[in-house]
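Input sequence (446 aa), recorded before submission:
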Amino acid sequence: MHQKRRSNAFPFVQVRTDSRWVTFPAAVPSRRSSEDSLSGVPRTGDQPLVEGLRHGQPSYHRASLALLFAGLASFNAMYCTQALMPELSTDLHASPAQSALTVSATTGILALAILPASILSERLGRGRVIVFSALAATIVGQLLAFAPSLGWLVAGRGLQGLLLSGVPATAMAWLAQEIHPKDLPRAMGLYVAGNSVGGLIGRLLPSGVLQFAGWRTALNVDMALALTFSIVLAVILPKERRFRPKALHLRSEIATMVRQWRDPRLAGLFGVGFIFMGVFVSLYNFLGYRLTGRFGMPPSLAGLVFLLYLFGTLASARGGRMAAQRGRGVAILVGTVLCVVGLPVAASGSLWMMLPGVAAFTYGFFTVHAVASGWVGALAPTSRGEASGMYLTCYYLGSSILGYLSGHVFHAAGWTALMMWLLGLVLVGCALAGIVARSARRLATA
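Predicted structure, token format:
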């Protein structure tokens, strides 16, 4: 394993695994740090800091499990209403677009709050931000089931998004700060697994409860589990040993972000993240309406469609390997082609045609995201933190904005029109990906 770091206000660490570089947010205790070796004991001035946690130590296992529960809690809460949208429309007399606001409000506010949460954690401590974020968001989640109207529910979900932002903004940085570099990939993998499983639970559990009770009970049950995850996180998360508050240089960070938007390759990848995440969330937002309406499935059975997310787990790993072997340009274009092929098939009136189309799109989307997110860091070697943060902001803004707009298309013109709308967006995303790939190839041969 090879490892390299840089120090800035949003430090990141790159770890070489599975023949590819994986970029994680890192924490550098001070801008004066002069030693970043594999010993895991950076030196500030004349005083060495304590060594990072090593695999086999009790605190290491507590830290890894704590961040696993952070992922389970936060991503469960983030998507807890997606599988409930058809029931929300029926019970609250809301259109699909209005019901989609229960997802869009969360991801939109979260997108805007990620960078401020990162900055705040540099002063207050990442552990405090993670614990407060998870506990506060899941406590608010317990109150959502008592919302008297859709407006109150959407407002509560927006508040959840604001509170949740502290986890994705700081969790990986906490791990990179506290864990020894040699043992970081193992701990990071557990956190990423928690994100994936948490998101899946947040969709499957509420839809399963709908078989026995209404959406309010389903939401309460799911949020009770998420709150339990948060409490476990708060109890077992070790105290930070290597954190030191940092001076913030907001003006220089803003200047760096402006420069990144002037780079057509980075701007193109930000657009790719915005479009493809927006299309992905739109597809799954309204898939439940199609299954319960056209095919007459009960909500509990329709919720099982979220198991198709498992194709994404496979695609993320294979997409990284393809990028390493064939190049990022080839890998991202393969992903976009799968998305283009999958959407027309998903428009089919046959269930047995539609589901493979959704699966193909899901595989393609996760391939695109895996490649694009890594490519952003590679294109900004001196400002990976800012670039990755901006990509994540655009990614969640796409979920919020396009997820809401797609609801109006579906409500006005139906499923086939929605698929054509999403296909048009994907073609724009393909064009952006092609421009980025061509630009990168031209610079490589210049």
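Checked by second reader. DSSP finds 16 helices and five strands in the chain.
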